[in-house]
Structure formats: structure tokens, C-alpha cells
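=== RUN LOG ===
request id: a7f3
mode: sequence -> structure
chains: 1
length: 329
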Amino acid sequence: MGFKKYEIFNVNNNIFGEDFVVYNYEEYEDKNIYYLKSKVIKCSCPHCGTISNSLHATCTRTIQFIPLHLKPTYINVNFYKFNCLNEECPIKVFRQDIKYCGPKQKFTYELKCLIFAISLFLSDETTSKILKIIGINVSNDTVRRLYQSIEIKDEVDVEEIGLDDVSIRKGMKYATVIYDMKDHHMLALLDGRDGKTLKEWLQNHKKIKKIARDRATAYANAINEVLPETLQIADRFHLFQNLIERFREIFKEEIPENIYILNGQILDEKPKEEIAKARVKKEILETLEYDDNPPVDENGQIIQFNDKSTDSNDKNHLVQAENRKKKSN
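=== RESULT ===
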């Protein structure tokens, strides 16, 4: 038997990309640190696209990464700044792009998504405490700043939108969310769901041709008032909801309340009740040694049992017999 040949898996390239190399790693009791160094010798200007190999400076950033072994993990990135060789370009110096982290950010994109996911269901302070348990150092103020920095970019020339109501505080406060039907990114988050704020928003978006919405009358009235020629489409969720409700009505009309089945056959009406009688073959009874004679004592005298409960004239016996008769009737 030969050894199985495994393919070499380059952890460095798959996690940090081909532009960086991990050249050192340090593990402490309270944190892990990866040291990365850039391998690029030239880079294109983000403004004019001119490729430059003119090195301007070397920079270092420390970014928090996904935790390993429940300990905070950081990557110390060594990257470059380049001089733009295009004299007409307004940007004279630009920095190398780090794909897994935005400029001036202290968290990787993956780590920010994890923080956002947990903060959706918890308060800022509780989110900070839970993240600390799994090895992510982030304060409650930082959590608040992260989701407050989210930008909702509106587009005046959008032609197809979807809208629905969302609960900001369940049962207390609602809002109207508007998104682009093509790539499903959010365009606006309006206060309330009564259609007033939607009318104001539609006034500035006259190019809309299609709107996917739920069955709220307030939305329909707002659209008909501002954009009467716009095609309104019921979203898939509410189409299924309408279909299910219609099926329920059909079932109530067509299917009877009670269905009777006898011997595997469905009956048109309720069957007659029959009292089952025990049937024992005579041959079986003859094989049984059964003595129906009254018991006797040593002298052959019949034993008499004095049981008050069997007295037909007993008061309790009469009451019980009357109750049994009423229950039977």
C-alpha cells in the first residue's frame, strides 16, 4: 500500500491573498499576532489607473482578525505607498490596497460581519461582553459606531424598487424599507408605514416603473397618488400567503367536518353503532372444567355470604342503581 498524496494547500494565499506573505507568528497567553509583508513591487493608481513602481514609503497597520483558539488575533501588515507617475493626476501619493480590510479600519471585513450579526439581536454592551468571551476585543461604543457608519445610498434614477415594512421595535415602532430590485441593496429607510413618508420619497423618484410591495393599503394608495402609471407587483411571499388562504377556504367548503371510515372504505353517513358480542365455540367450552355449584364447607353445608353491598334493599345500593340508570339513559 502506498501513501496517499495530498495536495498542498497554501493557507497564506487563501486567507491573505497573493500580494502578502506571512513571515512571522507570535502566540501569547492573551492574544495571537501574525506578521504580514507585501510582495508587490508596483501598483496602479486608484484614480487614473497608471501603474507605478516608484516607492514612496513603507507603512504598518495592526488589524484585528477572526479569533483563533478563543483569543484575540491581530495581523501586523507591512505595506507600501507609491508615487503616481501621471503628472496630471490630482493624487500624487496613493497606498496599496488591502483587500480584506478597508482604509483606516481596525477590523477585517469578516470580523465586522460577525460583530454586525451578533449586535442585531443584543444591546451594544451585551454584544461587547459576548464578543470578548469568544476572543474579540471591541467596546460597546465601537459597536455603536460601526453600525452608525453604515451608509444608505439613494439613487434618483432607479426604475425598479421593492418596499416593505420592518419592525424597529416590535409592536411599538415600524419603518418602511426601500431596496433596488436589481441588486437588492437598500435605497432608503423611512419612518412609519402609513405611506406619508413614502409619498415624499416617490416625488423625487419619478423614473420608477415597477414596484414590488406587500398588500398594505397605505402603500398602494401612496403609489397610485404619486405614480399612477407604475406597475405594482405583489411579492412572492404574499402570493403564497394568498394561495394558502384560498386553499383553506376550499377545504372548509369541500371537506366535511367528520369523515367515517369502516373496513378501509369511506362511508357517506355515520355507521350504526353495534354492540360487540363475545362468541365462544361450544367445543372450547366443553374442554373447560367449570363447576357452577355453590361452595360448601367440610360438612357439606352451603356457605352463605353476608355481604351488605349485594342487598338489593340497601340504601347505598338503591342510590347507586339509580345513578347507573340515569347515566345509561
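=== NOTES ===
The chain has a mean pLDDT of 84.
The radius of gyration is 41 Å.
=== END ===
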